[in-house]
Amino acid sequence: MKKLAAGNWKMNGSVATLTEVATLLKIQSTPICCEMLLCPPATLLSQMAAMAVGTALKIGGQNCHTKGSGAHTGDISATMLQDAGATYVIVGHSERRAEHGETDTLVRAKAIAAQSAGLVPIVCIGETGPERDAGATLDVIGTQLHGSIPDGATAATLVVAYEPVWAIGTDHTPTVEQIAEVHAFIRTRLTARLGTEAADVRILYGGSVKPSNATKIFAIPHVNGALVGGASLKAADFAAIVTALSAA
Length: 248
Ligand code: PEP
Hints:
This protein is of the alpha/beta class. The protein contains ten helices and eight strands. Strands 1-2-3-4-5-6-7-8 form an eight-stranded parallel beta barrel, surrounded by five helices. α3 links the parallel β3 and β4 (about 90). The chain is globular and about 45 Å long. Bound molecules: phosphoenolpyruvate (PEP). Phosphoenolpyruvate binds near residues 8, 169, 206, 228 and 231.
């Protein structure tokens, strides 16, 4: 299994900030043992993909429509992302679930559309703070996982990201035990659903991953990489996280 360090720029970045990508490529110029991915806003995808040619950097989208084309003003299809140079796409990020009412059923349809276009969907799941406080974490994760991932997925066609909503952008990371419990639970559920293939499906942790906590998080069983928001905007920070994963 090749672990994955994925950066999500969210609604951040301009042509000027592509200098961070150039810096990242300069820092991470030697071969690494993991995959390195950046998911910029759609406006920067083609330019970033051009910069990534011949390097270890891969490019992904942050969302896609369920359809390949048509009358869907303002939306972007998985096929279009692939055409622009993407090989991955994030689906079901908690910000899209919360701000756009995305359901598990819709997320699953997006993941299937991504797979059909030759992209690997990174399917995000995670409990809110109140859900964790109520002791419902595993119930929520089980339900989201069941509803959001496509049948017949393989290690080559699916990545799952566990992102506790209360840890995103807050500097509050779960304890090692909390992350370990959820990742082991996800692996068990994936095995029940996908069989032996599940052993190699990458399960990323996301939520306030920083250079200072990356090594500790990457040592947790069944943590096969990270989905990184804020720290992926700074080349030095993201490079340090990639280095930590590569060494894990
Ligand atoms: C995210 O947006 O997926 C994320 C994990 O953000 P951050 O790293 O900033 O918490």
